[in-house]
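Collaborator request, handled under Task 6.
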Amino acid sequence: MNVYNIYDFQKSNPDTFQQFPLKDNLFLYYNCPQREQILKLYSVHIQINFTISGNKLYRHGNNTWFADESKGLFLKKAAFQVELSPDYSGFEVLVFYLMEDYLRSIFDEYSRYLNLADLPKLNTKVMEEFFINEYIRDCYLSIIPYFEKKGRLPEQIIENKFKELIFNMLSHPQNKHILTYVMNITNGYQMPIWQVMEDNYIYDLKIEDFANISHRSLSTFNRDFKDYYDTTPARWLTERRLDKAKYMLETTNKTIGEIAYDTGFINASHFSRLFKEKYGKNPARFHNFSFQTNK
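Structure tokens returned to the collaborator:
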């Protein structure tokens, strides 16, 4: 299954995804057109999502988030999976794609009004839910009508509303985990190479995609990767995926196709060929032998 760059896809389809830019950021409001049960996506920009109606499941590794109108969802730069929930009946959502520099500028502008004491440790999960109260809800709902207006709008009007929204989010005591993340990127935090790779190796991404997610140029990414792993990204990805697949063959009853899908291989035949080259047995024989041995 392909992994889609969700930002590029949505930006290039304005008829489906109502949108307007703010500086280098992008705001979207739409009814989700997803029909596939599962989609694999990745984003090289931070997302803040507010569900207006409906629900959807987000997955990353063993973690699951349920998006609905009772809470917001903060998505960091990463690959992830979205699924239609069993009671899916449409998903209306407001999405803000934010550049780190812009989020940093908002924090700098309002930091003296924020309570920066007793912040929690930085959470390394790729998504985090956050609390919504009536002030936060009123802020984001007030932005929606502007998507319907014809012609150009004064940028300052939308920006002021958005800044008010961000301030209300960050100032609420139940959203200190989001404040921690924003403060860290303001202080120059850059995700370690190992975290970028461990978070995303199960997705069939290009090396350029890993570099973008890590907020590095391709040359800097390759240099940092070599310094940390002392090998190439392509070689490391193959070995890491095969190790994960071997573990799943030994410990689960998933099919070969499911395991190939879950570990980032292009397809089952490609996975089987690489697995046999490394372990001397095709995955099906290895799978059967492991279960017979463990009985």
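The cover message to the collaborator said: "The longest strand covers residues 46-54. The mean pLDDT is 91. Please let us know whether this matches your experimental observations."
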